[in-house]
Amino acid sequence: MQVPGGWRVLAVATAMTAGVALAGSSGPATAAPAAGTATAVLPQPDGWHGTSGGSVIEYRTTTWDGSAVEASGALFLPPGPAPAGGWPIAAYDHGTSGMAANCGGITTPGPGATRQDEFLRHLLSQGFAVVAPDYLGLGRFDTGPHPYLELRTEASATIDLVRAARESHPELSRTWMVFGGSQGGQAALGTAHLQQTTAPDLDFRGVVAFDPESDVEKLVTAARPGLPDVPLLSGNTTGLIAMMLAGLRSSHPELGLDSYLTPRGRDLVDAVGGLCLPAVGARATGMALGDLFARPLDDDRIRAAVASYMAVPTSGYSAPVLLLLNSGDVVVPSPLHALLCAELTAGGVSFRVVPGTGGHTEWNPQMRAALDEFLAAVRSS
């Protein structure tokens, strides 16, 4: 994304060129910035995402193996002075947009912008500063294909952006929550779980997940050659599964995933790593899920790796959980929503469900009212 020339890049002093030693310097190189450190803040013009007071934040986060990398996200501030104690923070995790740099997220153009901007503006209207990560590989830094649906990196990118935003903007409070839909709903649930061990110093107040991806790992590991089309699933399912396999293959090369794929399946998995969402669907046109596989994914190693990579935690949440779930969802089929509810119940999680009859992430007045009630409780508690 090109930043308009009239805008000044605000460098965060603790992070700029931190790991670079000047040529000829006799002193030791400074350690690279830690995860959660802002490296630059770039104010955006009025009208960006239909708001004012928006900025791009470049910051440090970690990959699946703990390696530090650059990432990008956005910060939006409500108008006017911050309240006593600072603006509470709503982290917004976006839905599927693709796997390559500039495939959407928040800081670069991409699919789903109208819906995500509606969510961003609604959170702002309720008196929250909003932080929104691009996720690894989708924003301003080409760190390789986005590890699609890898829960830990999604959650780490979210938590580290909260830290980076607070570091660079002292008007933000410790109080925060997370909201997301679709892939973002899965990321939000992962964030709510991970923050307990990685951000206990912050004041986390809860998670709202809207038609979250969940239990798709069970569909993946049940896949086999010749698996017929399932009418309940949307036409994009094969492409979405190929995206997940591409991310899993990149982070777990030891699994030898290519040996489970047909030549046609390998071609698709190879291709999607460089594509944005609309092109993924076009590339997978005419392929059933069973066309991907040369043999079943019924190996214990595969099942364990897939679960570690993407499974939503179903126990151990420390803050309120609100689920907004549509029975007409065919992107994340509604039976998977029901299964998630059953698993959370079995795991002893206290949660609230507000149902709808619409399609994927279509909200009704009851859902909107439940979200606003949740946000009001965060602000007042």
UniProtKB/TrEMBL annotation:
One of its GO terms (biological process) is lipid catabolic process. It comes from the Bacteria. One of its GO terms (molecular function) is triacylglycerol lipase activity. Keywords: Signal. Residues 1-31 form the signal peptide. InterPro entries: AB_hydrolase_fold, Lipase_secreted. It holds the Pfam family LIP. This is Lipase.
